[in-house]
Amino acid sequence: MNYTTQMDAAKKGIFTDKMEDVIERESISKEVLLEKIAQGKIVIPANIQHTRLKGRGIGEGLSTKVNVNLGVSEDCCDLEAELSKVNTAIDLKADSIMDLSTFGDTQKFRKIILEHSPVMLGTVPVYDTIAQFGNDFSVLKRDHFFQIVEQHADEGVDFLTIHAGLNLQALKKVRNNPRLTGVVSRGGSLLLAWMEKNNQENPFYDQFDRLLDICEKYDITLSLGDGLRPGSLADSTDAPQIQELITLGELTKEAWSRNVQVMIEGPGHVPFHEIATNIQLQKKLCHHAPFYVLGPLVTDIAPGYDHITSAIGGTLAGSAGADFLCYVTPAEHLRLPDLTDMKEGIMAVRIAAHAADIAKGIPGAIDWDHQMSQARANLDWQTMERLAIDSEKVRDYRLSSLPKKDSSVCTMCGDLCAIKTSNQVLKTNAG
């Protein structure tokens, strides 16, 4: 191997096996893929230790990817249940999984995922630092944070969420610009507490080169986390959020100088009319690095339905240029999601990503829709079921209410089916 990372390979004109994986899934030429990886506009999160991984690209000109969060907590620590979620996420065509576990034998859980999963795995090392060393910030040292980063890297984690932009300067912005919901990022709030307790700079910002050493060694993609993402519409696009974004843009250039791949994480809770502006700001301030968004959620009033509020925001964000959507489930803000919640969240975000791809003009995206429309025009229920994003749901709905007279229609209109009627008239006239 005469390259260190996918970015390094691209700069040297070397086409890797992981790039070949991307070409198989996307409508992009080798030349354009190499160019955009070299520029940092596309990333392929692919730790050299993750041997089962099938490479997937995230970024400009590629299909919008979707991520599924899972993992245990102290209150809900059932590894078997979470492993069921892993398998379900893969079956439902998630592009990546993030293990957000904060309790128990997290190392064992990650090992099982990596041994079985062909999709990307991401983690937030700060969570595991607390899980392994406790939350007494007075005894937690810088080396503890980096020890966990190295552990995750060596295990094979493909991308790491690191809240390196939440530094003392950003903290000052928070104090000078009070927020309605404060710091809602769990990783960001933990680092905030550590900085306050020890009166020291964020270790990941202060020793960013140390972090890059690890990422370069294993070809880990840095997902620079938005520790100051807005947790309410009232806090959207405020000074702390933008201050952190500026810092993340500076860190992105540092990472690229070491051939470390970078994505930028974004909001959060954002009013619908501010979403495109948020995408434009990120792309400008972070030099067109791929953008990974949670939602965004376009209203704060819908707990229990936040998979819908996030799908609305995700569609607009994706069409405006976001490259990677993190799913949100109906359980958001309420509890750890179960399998049903997870499926609802995945379906919502996949619909959003696909709708965004159509709007962005991703080659081939709308072909799927045309095939479905042709099946509807033909009243071809078997093909409709096969093409549906959730074939099982289509089959269950269809079987739950079959027409009594004519099996070619559904029970909404029955014999008054508009397609049946118009087909008869048009075919007659055509004859």
Protein described:
This protein is of the alpha/beta class and 431 residues long. The chain folds into 2 domains: 6-360, Radical SAM ThiC family, central domain (TIM Barrel), CATH 3.20.20.540; 367-430, no CATH class. Helices cover 50% and strands 9% of the residues. The protein contains 19 helices and 10 strands. The chain has helices at residues 6-11, 17-25, 30-39, 79-91, 106-116, 125-133, 142-155, 168-176, 186-198, 203-206, 208-218, 239-257, 275-285, 306-320, 339-360, 367-377, 381-387, 391-400, 418-430; strands at residues 42-43, 58-59, 65-70, 96-99, 120-123, 159-162, 221-224, 262-266, 291-294, 324-326. The strands form 2 sheets. An 8-stranded parallel beta barrel has the order 3-4-5-6-7-8-9-10, surrounded by 7 helices. The protein has a two-stranded antiparallel ribbon with strand order 1-2. Helix 7 packs parallel to helix 11 (208-218), helix 8 runs antiparallel to helix 12 (239-257) and helix 13 (275-285) crosses helix 14. The chain is globular and about 80 Å long. The protein starts with 5 loop residues before the first helix and ends with a helix. The model has no long low-confidence stretch (mean pLDDT 95).
